[in-house]
Design brief:
The protein folds into 2 domains: 10-53 and 314-408, Aspartate Aminotransferase, domain 1 (Alpha-Beta Complex); 78-309, Aspartate Aminotransferase, domain 2. It contains 13 helices and 13 strands. It has helices spanning 10-22, 53-70, 73-77, 82-95, 108-122, 137-150, 167-171, 196-205, 225-228, 303-313, 315-336, 362-371, 395-408; strands spanning 41-42, 102-104, 128-132, 153-157, 178-184, 209-213, 232-235, 250-253, 341-342, 354-358, 374-375, 377-379, 383-387. β12 and β13 form a beta hairpin. The protein starts with 9 loop residues before the first helix and ends with a helix.
Length: 409
């Protein structure tokens, strides 16, 4: 994509953004999403993705023709298999995972708890959990709780700023007492993109299990869980997978590990024979054993449309536009916001699909941005995060957002 001309002229910036949109091979897809005329620039797709028009139609149709018509019969006809069927589609299109290893259900927090507890039990005698201090709060809090619950030790990796957790960082903390390591594929604040394959190999050398949080990468960064030898992974579906507010998360358990792990929340649907209502719990074989309670069917409808759109476009094309959008945002920020500090990697190969800019004045301008119809994210204490969802975000929106930040400063 053509580099924008560096200038503070609003007219030239707007023209350059229009030219980039005109040459964008994915530009046509922005029209597939529902838009509100009052929102001029939505730059928070890494927190909550825009809804697809197709998803509105799917949910409406489900209420009338499935829920309203089939009623309880829908469970036997299609609904019970939906977590595994969507899981297989997600694995094939987005995660690089063969069938039978991914399921949909619960929240990211609950799935983290399930899989970390299962991993701890699969490595008896090992007393240490490893996580970085800059990981998302849920990940840290869940591990703190499990450590207290099971009498384990937490070992922290100190990696703040734009560098993120490296292979060397992990090699320096894992040993024969490590049970499980939990890290994020893309750091939630800086956008740092970790070396999944390299780090996973180091963890395996120590005999430990590796769990990756894919919340900020699923659907926007090419991922090959099977090829990289990943043991376990979780992720949410309301960011780049556009499943809607609170849509259920996903869990991945490598097929080679499924007979070794037993998740701790023993609900009826994860049992081997749920409809026998028998005495005593026996877990279902395979990925179905990760399920617990009744799946949230309505909540998992919308993500199917985004998975289908990514499948038709190709994740490689999504990644190409993602890099173009973030590089454009960085170029504009360098030019228009010279006092702001880029808190994300400049190297696109080490960056996800969002960037963070730090400036102590940012907290004060957020209400003004919203009033103007500019919606970025704010991360305390002083970071504006620009989350750029490639299939729904235009270069014009990026330009409008950065220009508005400049004007309010």
């Amino acid at each position: 994509m053509t580099d924008p001309t560096s200038t503070t002229s609003t007219a030239v910036i707007v023209d350059n953004a229009a030219a980039l949109d005109a040459s964008d091979p994915l530009a046509e897809h922005t029209g597939r999403f529902i838009r509100d005329a009052e929102v001029l620039s939505y730059l928070d797709g890494n927190s909550l993705g825009r809804p697809l028009i197709a998803s509105r139609d799917r949910v409406t149709d489900f209420i009338t023709t499935q829920w309203g018509s089939r009623l309880i019969r829908g469970w036997d006809e299609t609904w019970l298999d939906l977590p595994l069927r969507i899981g297989d589609d997600l694995g094939r299109v987005v995660l690089g995972a063969a069938a039978g290893q991914t399921t949909i259900g619960d929240s990211t927090t609950v799935l983290l708890y399930k899989l970390v507890r299962a991993a701890v039990d699969a490595r008896p005698g090992r007393r240490t959990l490893v996580i970085d201090r800059d990981n998302f709060p849920t990940d840290r809090y869940v591990l703190e709780g499990i450590a207290a619950e099971r009498g384990l030790q937490l070992r922290w990796i100190d990696s703040r700023g734009t560098n993120g957790v490296t292979v060397g960082d992990v090699a320096g903390v894992v040993d024969d007492d490590t049970a499980v390591v939990v890290l994020s594929h893309v750091a939630y604040r800086s956008g740092y993109l970790a070396d999944v394959a390299g780090i996973t190999e180091i963890v395996h050398r120590a005999g430990a299990l590796m769990l990756w949080d894919l919340c900020h990468s699923a659907g926007v960064v090419p991922t090959e869980l099977d090829a990289w030898g990943v043991d376990l992974a979780v992720g949410c579906t309301y960011k780049y997978l556009n499943g809607g507010p609170g849509s259920p998360a996903f869990a991945y358990v490598a097929s080679s590990l499924q007979s070794q792990v037993r998740q701790p929340i023993q609900g009826w649907l994860g049992s081997a024979t749920p409809f026998e209502m028998g005495q005593g719990y026996q877990p279902a074989e395979g990925i179905r054993g990760i399920l617990s309670g009744t799946p949230p069917i309505v909540g998992m409808l919308a993500m199917q449309d985004m998975i289908g759109l990514i499948d038709s476009v190709g994740l490689a094309a999504v990644r190409t536009k993602s890099v173009g959008l973030t590089e454009y945002a960085i170029t504009l920020a360098d030019d228009l916001l010279p006092e702001a500090r880029l808190a994300s990697p400049r190297d696109a190969a080490r960056r996800g699909s969002h960037i963070t800019l730090d400036d102590d004045r940012f907290a004060g301008i957020m209400p003004g941005l919203w009033e103007k119809g500019i919606v970025p994210d704010f991360r305390r204490p002083n970071g504006i995060r620009l989350g750029l969802s490639p299939l729904s975000t235009s270069f014009g929106e990026v330009a409008a957002g950065v220009l508005a930040i400049r004007d309010l400063l």
